[in-house]
Task: structure prediction
Amino acid sequence: MSSQTAQIKTEFLRDNGRPATARVITDAPHGSDTVPTANPLVGWVTETEEPNWVQSSAELELKRAGRTVRRVVHGRKSVRIPWMFNPLEPREEVWLRVQVTAESGTAGKWSEWRRIFAGFLGKNEWTATPIGLPQPCKAAQPGILRAEFNVAPDLRRATFYATAVGGYQAVINGTDVDDQVMKPGWTPFDLRTVHETTDVTHLLQTGPNAIGVRLAGAWGTEIFGFRENARRPYGDQPRFAGQLILEYNDGRTETVATNARWQATSGPITESGLYGGESYDARLRAVDGSNRTHADAGYDAKAWVPAAVMDDIVVPQARTSPFVRRLEELPATEVIRTPSGKTVLDFGQNLVGRLRIRVSGPAGAVVTLRHAEVLEHGELGTRPLRRAEATDRYTLSGEGVEEWEPEFTLHGFRYAEVSGWPGSLDPADVVAVVIHSDMERTGWFETSHPLVARLHENIVWSLRGNFLYVPSDCPQRDERLGWTGDIQIFAPTASFLYNVRGFLDSWLVDLAREQERYDGIVPFVVPHILGPARPAAAWGDAATIVPWVMQERFADIQTLERQYPSMVAWVDTILTLAGENRRWEGAFQFGDWLDPDAPPNQPGKTKTDPDIVATAYLYRSADLTARTASLLGRAAEAEKYGNIAAEVRRAFLDGYVTVAGRIMSDSPTAYALAIVFDIAPPHQHPAMGFRLAHLVEAAGYRISTGFVGTPIIQDALTRTGHLDVATRLLTEVENPSWLYPVTMGATTVWERWDSMLPDGSINPGSMTSFNHYALGAVGDWLHRVVAGLAPDGPGYERLWIEPRVLEGFDSAAAEHLTPYGTARAGWRRADDYVVVEATVPPNTVATIVLPDGMKHQVGSGAHRWEIF
Result:
């Protein structure tokens, strides 16, 4: 490619004279105005067509209780700014807007007002008593709770706070209080619970009112664990606690809280479990003779019994993580008649959620729905589910057209077997409902290579399916746990595709709490339900790496500061195990988990010595802890952990690396770790890169790395000048490779490279999932390297745009909604030249490195180059 470069500024860069505008953002969950703390963080995104726009100041205006208060921020700061006003009071409603001024002196327009509602409880304000069914007939018995109360005239506001160890939905006067699903989700219930905060004023009426609660076990009563260690760690029965605070215009306040005076009964949900599925008998709906439901005032509840006071629930904290909602619906794309005569619906996409059916037939008829991710030889492939039945059953009431969707269970599936359907099945009467944490989509990637484009789409779907209250490893089998190693390697990819800040921030709180329970050891899974905790490299290092990603991608210094003690505790714990020689050796490790050369039932038996992996991660965590201490102004600790990192680095080189740059295990993962973690000195990188490229070529450009090596091998090859080898590795279609599953029809990322074998049979290993995001961590390389869009400062306040033109590709581009606004980078071939385009958000700057090596420093706006 010639060095002749022409920069062409597009029409977008011409200032049209319109003043800048801004949009206020807060740390409320996506789609909500409710903040969880008295001093919420705020920020704003500026929109302007003025080129090279930089903020010189911003004025904030807050309306509260009839008064207006103003504050000024000087300089460029616009992301995650500490609250500058008096702390919020519980249930206080305020309005905030901002006006930005450019360094050019031009003042922007005032933003729209942003409502902020204080969703937390006051000190000692939680008075609700946990209640449940008094005489459950079995473990994890679903049930219904209810109470009636009066509302006086002149009600100003009604706020409902609720939590559960289990899953619940509240109903007031016959209407669900919100559209959330399986609240409150999963936290370590014995250490931390969260409450929802819901404004229900519009649901109340003067005079008699009724509140009902549908309750099931969900995560609160599931049997977690494997084989003989499986147990219900949080108890046998679900329990609920909630309180409704009524505020009147004259200043009076009343509280309606759960207690022993509430009523309870079993209901139409007869069975419910995350793994097993849900059974519903429509003949048992709680409707009285006047057709009122249990959540209507005046309902005849003579047959109900007083609710039982249950074990205490930890005083809940306001939710900081995103809500979980129904976010998409997919129709069946095909009706399949299997070789055995079963009827199976194909929804065309492996997803997480459940089915909604519309059916009519005689009372007592039972429709059964079985779910699976794949077909094996034409039949539903259920072996990978292990003991998860993933089966829902609906018993008809016989009252005309009936509609039903399970409420407290979830399945990972593409295919559903339907049996017992009365009459002929119209596939339009069965819809797949996609459910996951409702996070803002922030990242997109496109390319001319159709298989790579589908790979990226599979990565997105795997994120969606496994970001549901916790970052899980798989959504279909009897597991679905928050494995720390998986999210550690996937966090950079996830943070590009969605705004996962609140999601991961909440999960990190639980990680630190679990770690405290185990004296510095980070468990394999969070929440931890697998018995005594043991340390493992790459898994426990989520304590240091995930918070660092939060700072890098979201400028989230607050989470980094809160998690710093957790980072220190992890490093100190591992240093004790490593001993004076600073190498972590001889202990249990997952190593380069699921190396494709490992036997199907021994996924930890890998080519790379697990001690090499462990010591490399010890260096990585010590180094990040030192850098974090420096950012936080802890100079002495920064020096301490910096020295420790240097000692570990020297121990790694002395113990595992020859002078010529050959590593003991001589495996791709070993070289990738040494290069990407900057353990090996720069002068050894060429030799290591050459050896790494040789190993990849010798393997026929097929994957030979597992969980640890796969996320970084492309960066190692790129950094050492072997982009051509990285391209061949990316585009290989033979097993094992990223694209082999795509050629087999995959619509999500697989757990194993060969979860399905070429003959259409499922991998014989007992651990096989077809929806598992870990190996999709290559997405971060696609965004940063292929499209060329990367952060170069916290929260993308500076960008590094360096697109790589790949052989066999005609184009690639990425777009990301940064905390400062939309950034975009990409390239395309055009006749005998390459066009590079970049969009830089207001209030940021970018370094552009073109494919011909030319470097440019640019400000905000749209930019275009042609390289001949």
Observations:
- Residues 557-578 form the longest helix (22 residues).
- The chain has 14 helices and 44 strands.
